[in-house]
Amino acid sequence: MSEVQYTAEGVGRYYDVMAQFYQTVWGDSIHMGFWPDPTDATVSMSQAQKNFTDLMISHMGLQPGQRALDVGCGTGRPAIQLARATNTHVTAISISQSQIATATGYARESGVAPRAQAQGTGAGSANATDDAPTARFELVDAMAMPYRDGTFDAAWAFESIFHMPSRLQVFREMARVVRPGGRVVVADFVTLRPLTSEESAIAYPAFAANDLASLEDYVRDLKQVGLTNISCRDVTANTFRPSNRATYRELQTEAALGQLRKAYGHEQADAFRNGWSAIEKVNETLGYVLIQADKP
């Protein structure tokens, strides 16, 4: 367990403060990318992130017109991509005010904002028909969602569970709001072995993590909330490691460093660059998995 426990508000503040950092080094999305060939340095972080979202979408099993939930939506790009790719209605939640504002803006620009959120942005921003895909963004704590039982056909948590004060409680809530016959998909960091105190001191603050756990812990909790047909795919070599390499390369560029210095000051910008290089120390300790489960 981490020595520093992050409340929901604390995680929200983390992303409010770190928004410019992630925008600078990762672009519009705040999640790692997927490289089919991990050695292919010609694939940009932005393209790799889209690749990963496509992979997540392929596991959701959605049909046009159905409803999906995105738990921990970041800047909203994955939810928008999900809605448009599957022609579905996506509700996406975050505890960061700035993320909800950013995501809602992107939804308006993309033409998938529901009418209520598209008002005032011009006629072209609202959906033309009720059958058009939508992505709605709401300030909601994943530990206590306001949605009725069985509201959604599928739900995903895309690189967000490690932030949660209780992984089991979030899985319980996801299982509750997904209908029988629906699906839950999770992409997240896992520990490959117990972390040393030095590794914990690097990993937990770097990712604002509450609990970095093993794959076995994830599977146990998913089973405990009643999910079945659990399948797991280790994508560490395609995600965590090439994403770290791409981030480190970007932080060495004068363009990125200049933007970070402007936003945070010279001392903090240099700390970001040096801090990410320290993540190399946990590169062989942390893995990344994609998990699919069904609600009977």
TrEMBL record:
Residue stretches of biased makeup (Polar residues): 118-128
Pfam families hit by this protein: Methyltransf_11
Annotated ranges, domain Polyketide synthase-like methyltransferase: 21-291
Chain positions covered by the region annotation Disordered: 111-130
A single BP term in Gene Ontology: methylation
Superkingdom classification of source: Bacteria
SMART domains, per the entry: PKS_MT
Aminoacyl-tRNA synthetase as UniProt keyword: no
Keywords: Methyltransferase, S-adenosyl-L-methionine, Transferase
Molecular function as annotated in GO: S-adenosylmethionine-dependent methyltransferase activity
Protein name as it appears in the record: Type 11 methyltransferase
Organism placement in taxonomy: Bacteria, Pseudomonadati, Myxococcota, Myxococcia, Myxococcales
